[in-house]
Amino acid sequence: MATTKLAVNRREPKDSSTGRLAAATFHVPPALASEEVFWQMLRMERRRSERSGRAFILVLVSGENLLLHSGSDKANNVVSAINSNIRETDLIGWYKPHTTLGLVMTDISEPSQETVERIAGKISSALQDSLSIETDCHLTMVVRVYPRDGEDRVFYPEVFKCRETEKLKHVIKRAIDILGSLGALILFSPLLAVIAIIIKCTSAGPVFHCNKRLGQYGKEFWFYKFRTMSANNDSHIHREYVARLIAGAPEAEQNDGLFKLTSDPRITPFGRFLRRTSLDELPQFVNVLLNNMSLVGPRPPLPYEFERYRPWHKRRVLEQKPGITGLWQVEGRSRTSFDDMVRMDIRYAAAQSLWLDLKILIQTPAAMFSGRGAC
Q1: Domain final position from 119, 134, 157
Q2: Which residues make Cβ contacts (< 8 Å) with residue 342, sequence separation at least 6?
Q3: N or C end: fewer C-beta atoms under 10 angstroms in the chain?
Q4: How far apart are CA 293 and CA 174, in angstroms?
Q5: Confidence check: pLDDT of 256 > 50
Q6: What average pLDDT does the structure give for the chain?
């Protein structure tokens, strides 16, 4: 169970004197990290966990009526109650100012469900004991474990904050995507028709290949390509290759194609040409129109690829909408390892701008038709 949600309601203390003592004890709260500082600490803890493989727990306590006035006795009691159940190495601060407190419990050696429930229960009991019967509030506590729940958006608040502050840039990027994909479909319509006829005449099966891919935030969508393989083939060859590649096996990285096997017996002769020139990807302009993809971005993974990702690999899916072309296509393609490809995608997400997108789009035709690093 990846999520634990607990509602903390007001309740009668077991003993009135105990209740008064608890309220007095929790009167002075510790210093809270600001939203910016807490997000920075959370980001650093993600990186540390990715390197060490050790988990951490993120606890979010929300209650607008209670926390709206951060200097009130009610808020002070909540903060002190949480602080009484954490270690010196744990981090506490504002996840969202005045509405949501965040707690990062670092270096959890065994993040089992029993451990999570025990921690949540201790904090819940402390919160209930700290609130008197007169307190009219309702708290909600959400618990997540990283990297087990690494795809959850709560671990990446800075990503969504950035998107909110750059709405105009995203509107312009989307407008370029629509105009560019419409223009490409009109311009290449004769070529699309010719390719479709040749596929139909040279091999049995449908013209297009459709499969499920993962877009931004892990959302599934139907992904369109021209069919380059024989119909009704088995995917186990590619599954095994992807597993070796992501694991860093030398024989996989030395193959001629990243995620594309040149010796794959499933590929048709004409399909090999389409793959080498990347013409098989032209139908993806439809995906751009449907807002599943962008013109520029990381390549969307198959679900079974994503299952093999290490925690830091998943950033390529989270931080940008997938694209038809990107840094990897124009700078690396199959000449890079899988880890290097992910680093390129993350570097693009950090530096993304309309000017960078334009540079990548200009370089893409030369990379396509030269066959550099393709298969």
Answers
A1: 157
A2: 312, 313, 315, 316
A3: N
A4: 10
A5: no
A6: 80
